[in-house]
Design goal:
Strands 2-1-3-4 form a four-stranded mixed β-sheet, covered by helices on one side. The protein contains eight helices and four strands; from the N terminus they run βαβαββαααααα. The two termini are 27 Å apart. 53% of the residues lie in helices and 7% in strands. The longest helix has 28 residues, at 85-112.
């Protein structure tokens, strides 16, 4: 299998962390810049987004939740998405919350790259508020994720890591000591260290 990723993409980091936590050795990671529309990426991802996973039979899987769901059934590693319906729903809701925070954080980055006259400070403020609201729910729910590692843990970790990477001034730790402690421990996992983006 081949995984196309961008080194600073938090969604790709989620998949790359998932691969490591599953102990999958048969995934070749290929770094690309999706903004340059590389033909090898466009050939497998019609919208040119990362991550994109190409299976051994040539078929492509894209969008990080779908890729993680597929990879969870590959290999002999631990299940990171429970099969039990109640436990699975809990993990997938946590995954969606992490992605929701990422969506707001990425939107703020993209807005900041637009020309001065085209930026919307009101939208940035809205996204900022939504990201912080998501963090507050993470702080409430993180203890309920339980021990071990699931896709929910990975989604929380990658979302908070991206806030540190791109939005340090957001100050997400303020008032969330337990979440900050959890993240400090989770960020020290080899899978997180190995996938940490660099500016």
């Amino acid at each position: 299998m081949k995984l196309f990723y961008a080194p600073t993409s938090p969604y790709a980091r989620k998949v790359r962390t998932f691969v490591r936590e599953k102990g999958l050795s048969g995934v070749e990671e290929i770094a690309v810049n999706p903004w340059e529309d590389p033909p090898e990426l466009r050939a497998v991802s019609p919208i040119g987004k990362v991550p994109a996973l190409v299976l051994d039979d040539g078929n492509a899987v894209y969008d990080s939740p779908v890729i993680c769901d597929y990879l969870d059934g590959v290999g002999e590693g631990p299940r990171l998405i429970p099969e039990d319906s109640d436990a699975r729903r809990k993990v997938m809701i946590a995954q969606a919350l992490g992605d929701g925070v990422l969506d707001m954080a990425v939107a703020m980055v993209m807005e900041g790259r637009r020309p001065d006259g085209e930026r919307s400070p009101s939208m940035v403020e809205r996204w900022r508020g939504q990201a912080l609201a998501g963090v507050a729910v993470m702080a409430r729910d993180v203890s309920g994720l339980g021990d071990g590692v699931t896709l929910g843990h990975i989604a929380f970790g990658c979302a908070l890591g991206y806030l540190d990477f791109r939005h340090d001034a957001l100050g997400w730790r303020q008032g969330h000591d337990a979440l900050a402690k959890w993240f400090g421990e989770f960020a020290a996992r080899p899978s997180m260290i190995d996938t940490k983006p660099e500016a």
